[in-house]
Amino acid sequence: MPTVTQRAEWTTTARDRTIDAIKAGRTDEALQGVEAMLEEARPIHDFYGDMSAVFCDFIKDEMGEAGVEKAWRYLGERLWKPLYEQLAGAGAEALAGVYAMFLRSHRYDFRVTEDDEKFTFHLDYCPSGQRLMMEGKTQGDPRHLLNHGVSQQPHAWTFGRTGVPYYCGHTALWFDMLPSEWGKPMMKTKFGDFDAQGRVAGTPCMTFIYKQIPARK
Known about the structure:
CATH topology: Muramoyl-pentapeptide Carboxypeptidase, domain 2
Oligomer: single chain
Order of helices and strands: HHHHHEEHHEE
Structural class: alpha+beta
Strand content: 5-15%
Strand order of the largest sheet: 1-2-4-3
CATH architecture: 2-Layer Sandwich
Largest sheet: 4 strands, antiparallel
Shape: globular
């Protein structure tokens, strides 16, 4: 009979270890475990981000850049619209609160400011499109074998720019273009300024959530 060994180290989560440390009063270990829980989730998060970018590349190769917009529109109508309309109906505070939750769970580095008109989210580090740029994973960057596509022509869904990762196209669509088309333009978004290594080199990406639906130019 073969010897069977349990590999508990592969099935014990960072959460399990952190709870054990808390119960045993090992404060330093428990504090380290908080970060360990976050780091444990990072690889699959980043892999799915890369996978989404690869889907965009496939669609572009098969259907051109218009196909990328069509795909993100389809997802926006199916996935984002029901949630957006529910939150927009509950008001800007509810919409901004859920958006902040999305950013926290996504592990963004961000700041929020509020004035009489709107909430402004300053996205100092984006673990999706910006991460791809920082890791050298965008078209023409020699630092990585993966070279995900970027806009070759300026489109509304690429913020009127070339060189924007196709992955980022859903942001302009879901937070700006589609809400306007749905008659509830409570959100607007701005693409940041980045250097050749994907670092913020001016203003970061920003999202605005308006307390009242503004007149759009």
